Fold:
Amino acid sequence: MPGLQLSRDFYTEVVRPLVAGVPHSAALIGAGSEVLAFDTERSTGHGWGPRVVLFTAAGVAQEVREAVGRGLPEVFAGYPTVFGGGSGVVVADPGEWFSGRLGFDPGRGVGVLDWLSAPWQRLAEVTSGEVFHDGLGVLEPARAALRWYPADLWRYVLAVQWRRLAQEESFPGRCGEVGDDLGSAVLTAGLAREVMRLALLMRRRYPPYSKWLGSGFARLSGAAELGDALSRAVAAREWRERERHLRRACERVAALHNRVGLAEPLEAAVRGSSGGPFQVIGAGRFADALVAAVTDPVVAALPPAGSVDQFAGSADVLTCPDRCRAVTRTVLGL
Structure:
């Protein structure tokens, strides 16, 4: 049984009767493979089971915890209700819960620092899953506020992602030319990752973290040919073949840029690089077009570093909201 269905039934059959008469909201959001529907049989071996995040007013939280503790069965649908060191029912204040996951409470508004310091994985976690009941009327508005970037911040994040491609797009060929085949292969894999994240961002999907990036990308409708080109680029044994498949992939995301319509349409064909006889898309011109389309002066003044995922790769940073906000303030001068 998928974890989302298990938790939905758990709330309906077990948790909701235990808190009858108490104003609350309930959902399966936050951490967990089942929130993004990536759970498999492998997931059941660690921290997986019937789960509900139960949101209540602060004044009744302890009373609710005690009621749940008294009435919770040991097993539901064949799975223990206590696993991973705790109960499958977490009782929380909405503002505190969101602040703990993101570093801010979206119920109080979402500013530029909030958007750019929130990791994509965390944004995906709080906008995916399912709200089973929103008696407090707070979850759906908060999730709607976080569903996607405002238009100019979207342009900014996309521009930075194109810039990441521009910085290395000719390097697989340059490494191959001097006989560094391993270096060429590593760079190709890195560029494939950046193209996947770019495609997801263009399609208004927060890229999940590395373990689920390929799975998330594979769910994009119409991405089969792009995925085939990237797979062939990564699997290629010679740099000219890598370049050929990367070229095909980059032309497809360039065409997607034109269809999305956030900036001036550009020629979607590859061309020779300025640093040698290598075929590249010229990713910098797409970044420039997006930046030129930004009208918000605050966003226009930001340095070309992007969101925290684009300049900080450490899991020890990206899993700690306070660190994300601190490093984002420093890097972007916010």
About this structure: DSSP finds 17 helices and ten strands in the chain. The two ends are 45 Å apart (CA to CA). The longest helix spans residues 181-202.
